């Protein structure tokens, strides 16, 4: 499984992000490209502990049982629900959001698993740095596929 802590996987994701255009259209979902980039950036903030989001009641009940879906080899289903706090609905500036996400990914990879948050994921609960690294890659891959890159 690919892991964002591996430089080659971060480089691959960054290359794909750079292929996005402001007018790239989603194959599914409601976000435009700038909103998707902002959403992924906010997710990075959760992974670093720079943002918190309370656990949903459903996450508390079933999160630990389904958490392997966050970091396994299976694709994320299209139109899967998201963490409400990082659902981006307002308009965003594409270039700014793209550069912000790229910088956050490079810093996250550079700092390594030691800087990964110890806070629980808002749905899946406690994750190891290894699980975060795989899950972040999988999340980014899902959204880049959403926009055909």
Structure description:
With 149 residues, the chain is an all-alpha fold. The protein has helices at residues 7-19, 33-48, 57-66, 68-71, 94-111, 129-146. 53% of the residues lie in helices and 0% in strands. The chain contains six helices and no strands. The protein has one domain (7-146): Four Helix Bundle (Hemerythrin (Met), subunit A) (Up-down Bundle). The protein is globular and about 40 Å long. It starts with 6 loop residues before the first helix and ends with a helix. The mean pLDDT is 92. Helix 1 runs antiparallel to helix 5.
Tally of separate helices: 6
Apparent shape: globular
Report mean pLDDT, rounded to a whole number.
92
CATH architecture: Up-down Bundle
Task: Outline the biggest β-sheet.
Answer: none
Classified by CATH, the class is Mainly Alpha
Care to count the β-strands?
A: 0
How many distinct folded domains? 1
Would you list the SSEs in sequence order as H and E? Answer: HHHHHH
Helix content: 40-55%
Structural class from helices and strands?
mainly alpha
Rg, Cα atoms, Å: 14 Å
Termini gap: 19 Å
Amount of beta strand: under 5%
Annotated CATH topology: Four Helix Bundle (Hemerythrin (Met), subunit A)
pLDDT < 50 stretches: none
């Amino acid at each position: 499984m690919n892991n964002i802590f591996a430089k080659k996987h971060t480089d691959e994701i960054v290359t794909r992000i750079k292929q996005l255009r402001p007018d790239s259209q989603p194959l599914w979902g409601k976000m435009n490209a700038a909103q998707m980039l902002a959403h992924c950036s906010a997710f990075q903030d959760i992974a670093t502990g720079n943002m918190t989001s309370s656990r949903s009641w459903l996450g508390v009940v079933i999160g630990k049982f389904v958490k392997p879906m966050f970091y396994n080899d299976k694709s994320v289903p299209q139109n899967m629900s998201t963490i409400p706090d990082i659902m981006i609905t307002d308009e965003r500036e594409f270039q700014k959001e793209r550069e912000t996400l790229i910088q956050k990914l490079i810093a996250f990879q550079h700092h390594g698993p030691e800087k990964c948050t110890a806070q629980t994921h808002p749905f899946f609960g406690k994750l190891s740095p290894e699980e975060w690294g795989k899950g972040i890659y999988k999340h980014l891959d899902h959204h880049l596929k959403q926009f055909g890159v």
